[in-house]
Amino acid sequence: MLEVGISAPDFELPDQNGEIHSLKSYRGKKVILYFYPKDNTAGCTKQACGFSERVPQIQEKGAVVLGVSKDSIASHKKFEEKHGLNITLLSDPQHTVLEAYDVWKEKKNYGKVSMGVVRTTYLIDEEGIIRMANDKVKAAEDPEKMLGELE
């Protein structure tokens, strides 16, 4: 996990519609940048739907939500359509941004070791500085918690 107080690494990634987003294009806004393991899994769906429901309040506070996983653009599009999401989902199949943000790690599941995304949420301020970092994210609670962090 990256440290609070440092400049967030810039990136360029495609969203669920194939449009390219860079972190620097959001200067002047707060960015809730969250990393999640996989589209259409229980926890990831709760987290994405929670953020999607809170978009009006998040926008009122001058912020945007960007979700990032290694899933493809097509997978993100299906995820968006299936759940009526209104947040930006970024595709990082090469793990470039996942590694830059230190969320691509070794994980153990039922004794099996594999590489994967550690669910992590960052709050980045208007100048691109990391103001909050959390790698102990509870998927269902994260959207409300992050809304509170925008106060």
Oligomeric form: single chain
List unreliable stretches of 5+ residues.
none
Give average pLDDT, whole number.
Answer: 96
Count every beta strand, where a strand is a DSSP E run of 2 or more residues.
9
The ordered string of helix (H) and strand (E) elements is EEEHHEHEHEEEEH
Task: Chart the SSEs and their pairings.
Blueprint: E1 12-14, E2 20-22, E3 30-35, H1 42-53, H2 55-60, E4 63-69, H3 73-83, E5 88-91, H4 96-100, E6 104-109, E7 112-117, E8 120-124, E9 130-134, H5 142-149
Parallel strand pairs: 3-4, 4-5
Antiparallel strand pairs: 1-2, 3-8, 6-7, 8-9
Task: Give a quick set of tags describing it.
alpha/beta, globular, 151 residues, 5 helices
Give an overview of the whole structure.
By secondary structure, the protein is of the alpha/beta class. Helix content is about 30%, strand content about 30%. The chain contains five helices and nine strands; from the N terminus they run βββααβαβαββββα. The chain has helices at about 40-55, 55-60, 75-85, 95-100, 140-150, and strands at about 10-15, 20, 30-35, 65-70, 90, 105-110, 110-115, 120-125, 130-135. Strands 5-4-3-8-9 form a five-stranded mixed beta sheet. Strand 8 and strand 9 form a beta hairpin. The longest helix has 12 residues, at about 40-55. The radius of gyration is 14 Å and the shape is globular. The chain starts with 11 loop residues before the first strand and ends with a helix.
Summarize this, please?
This protein is α/β, with parallel strands linked by helices and 151 residues long. It contains five helices and nine strands.
